[in-house]
Amino acid sequence: MRDKNSFIVEKESGKMNLKRNIGATIYYLVAIRLPNRRAFVGGGIGKALRNMCARMMLNKCGVDINIEKGATFSTRCSIGDHSGIGINAKLGVVYIGDNVLMGPECVILSRNHGFTDKETLIRDQGYQEEKPVYIGNDVWIGHRVIILPGVRIGDGTVIGAGAVVTKDTIPYSVVGGNPAKVLKMRE
Fold it and tell me: What radius of gyration, in Å, describes the C-alpha atoms of the chain?
């Protein structure tokens, strides 16, 4: 038997799903293809429409965000104030802090294929458990960075272009390489 409060929660949940679906439909049919924010013609419209869709789709969406052309992301992502998702970036479940800069073509994974049973084809093993990625505040992620599932990027971290981040980063470190390692600490 339901009480009236549980019905209200279910009803609100249905409204949220409809809002997310409308936002995702507009985003993936139209907004994702519009020019990036620096384009002379249509850049402002593209940015505004992508940001509007993100507000409809995401659990948490900060102020003054920037979602660039071609970016794909899970509706379970969140993005903090003054942060962005780069051109053609591909994101699984990622929690992005405030003031995060992201270069183009970054890939942030939150799950991988299963591969532990050598008697079963990898394609038949399904997926491993999902592990969200957490990105701290004041982070700069360079061009074509890859971040693997479950990684935590510390506050103030700089990740060099092309890095493959397989482990958590130390706050205020500069990391790079494959696999990424600490190159130096920010002064």
Answer: 18
Cα–Cα distance, 146 to 171 (Å, whole number)? 18
Could you say which of 11, 33, 60, 113 is catalytic?
Answer: 113
Q: How many domains does the chain have?
A: 1
Per the annotation, the verdict on 143 as an active-site residue is no
Q: Which residues contact 35 (CB under 8 A, 6 or more apart)?
A: 41, 42, 43, 46, 69
Series of mean pLDDT values for 10-residue runs along the chain (187 residues) = 40 72 92 80 84 93 95 95 97 97 98 92 93 98 98 98 98 98 95
Q: How far is CA 45 from CA 15, 34, 36, 60, in A?
A: 27, 8, 9, 22
**The tokens 């982070």 sit on which residue?**
139
CATH number at residue 176: 2.160.10.10
The residue range of the domain holding 19 is: 4-185
